[in-house]
Model the fold of this input.
Amino acid sequence: MSTVALDLDGTLISFERIYEIYRKAYEETIKSLKEKGVKIPKELEKHGEEYYRAFREIEGFSEEFDKIYYEILKENSYLKEEEERAKKIYRFVIEKFNPRDIYIVSGNSKAKEIVEKILPEFPKEKIFVTKPGNYEEEKVSLFKKLKIELYIGDLEVDEKIARNANIRFLNVKDIEKEILSV
Done:
């Protein structure tokens, strides 16, 4: 038995879906802030590699992004479409690893609301949200505190976080076919 942490965006919700939502929310946030007179650095006007800088450097970005992001999720059927995927991954983790505990750890400020829609049976008190600007260090610290032994994520940064926390990492992309064919 082990203690497992699951990433939300790109893991329980597919990378393709989350990227599409992030891109739309980012563009609408930049547009909204410009309309409110907020100065946006040229290099941050388009969604890309510098995405996380916007949370740290643009006044009001985080709050506006969160609001728009969640509205996009609710307006479209994104959450309903991702529900089946999330449930299959969750069941797979339970059956394969028989964990003593499972947590969801995400930098997404709306993680609790999202998980409530896609995995309503998942206990809210086991969902942790990290801040976008400092999420790597925060996740490492949280994993040590929760005694996480396995982290399931989707990005190289997730693997780096697991390495820094001295725990095993499982890339959902490597096991996706098996999970989604169950």
User: Anything to note?
Assistant: The two ends are 21 Å apart (CA to CA). Residues 31 and 123 are 36 Å apart (CA to CA). The chain has a mean pLDDT of 89.
